[in-house]
Amino acid sequence: MRRARKSDQNLARLYFGNSAELEVSVNPDGEISSERSRLSSAMAFDMSYCLSWRVAVEANNARAWRTVPAQCVRYVEDYMLGGQYCRDLDTVVDQICVYINGITAASDGMDAWILDVDDTCLSNTLYYKDRHFGGDPFDPMAFKSWALRGISPAILAVLRLYGRLIEKGFKVFLITGRDEEVFYLSTEHNLHAQGFIGYERLIMRSAEYRGVAATVFKSAMRKQLVAEGFRIRGNVGDQWSDLLGDCTGDRFFKIPNPMYFVP
Ligand SMILES: [Mg+2]
């Protein structure tokens, strides 16, 4: 029996991920045998379980979870860094572009889009990389230090979308649950440095909304925009709390995020 060709190993990794440490072999007839000496059945079960768990998260069936299940930490790492997350982001943005190609911003300048900031415009994957990709409980002080540094890279697919929205004449409002007093300057600097320039307003959580659920805060901010006469044509966020509630817009789009849940 000979060792599997590179292409066979890549095929196997496609299904089982890089962490599987596969030893795939090919018999003299060219058939791939299932010699996966270190891929235990338990591991295969975890992979299947974790895929189902991630679908439940993205579909808003799993709620109020505090950490990524221990057996899925490696799976989430593979998802975030192995290419599938970027592929999923591109697919979401491609679908949004199909939608925006069919609509026009009116000349009164009142057609608006809402974008969330954390893990929608700006990526915190580097921060979560050191925290087991959401396997560790949320640490508000550590996240504060990270966010104050203002070094989160743009999510490139969303930056591409952002450019299209500005180009088509939509007013873009960035609404984030970050505390305004603490994070305004670092967030604004971070957004500008990453190419998010020309938005209409960066709306952050004022003292009045401290401790209030994101859905309540963001609903109130959208309601205010509608009261000002803006028509919300689309809304994009990585959390369902960005997208549900009042004045949700003509359409909303969910950016993938299996690392944490914001109520
Ligand atoms: Mg977010």
3D structure, described in words:
The structure is a single chain. Residues 1-5 and 7-24 have low confidence and may be disordered. This protein has 263 residues and is an alpha/beta fold. Helix 4 (84-101) packs parallel to helix 7 (156-167) and helix 6 packs across helix 8 (180-193). The strands form two sheets. Strands 6-5-4-7-8 form a five-stranded parallel beta sheet, sandwiched between helices. A three-stranded antiparallel beta sheet has the order 1-2-3, with no helix packed on it. It contains nine helices and eight strands. It has two domains: 2-39, no CATH class; 86-254, HAD superfamily/HAD-like (Rossmann fold, 3-Layer(aba) Sandwich). Helix content is 42%, strand content 13%. It has helices spanning 6-16, 41-58, 73-81, 84-101, 125-129, 140-149, 156-167, 180-193, 214-227, and strands at 2-3, 25-26, 32-33, 111-115, 171-179, 201-205, 231-237, 252-254. Strand 5 (171-179), helix 8 (180-193) and strand 6 (201-205) form a beta-alpha-beta unit. The structure holds magnesium ion.
Write the layout of secondary structure elements.
Elements: E1 2-3, H1 6-16, E2 25-26, E3 32-33, H2 41-58, H3 73-81, H4 84-101, E4 111-115, H5 125-129, H6 140-149, H7 156-167, E5 171-179, H8 180-193, E6 201-205, H9 214-227, E7 231-237, E8 252-254
Parallel strand pairs: 4-5, 4-7, 5-6, 7-8
Antiparallel strand pairs: 1-2, 2-3
Helix pairs in contact: 4-7, 6-8
The structure holds magnesium ion.
Outline of this structure?
Pfam families: Acid_phosphat_B. The chain has helices spanning 6-16, 41-58, 73-81, 84-101, 125-129, 140-149, 156-167, 180-193, 214-227; strands spanning 2-3, 25-26, 32-33, 111-115, 171-179, 201-205, 231-237, 252-254.
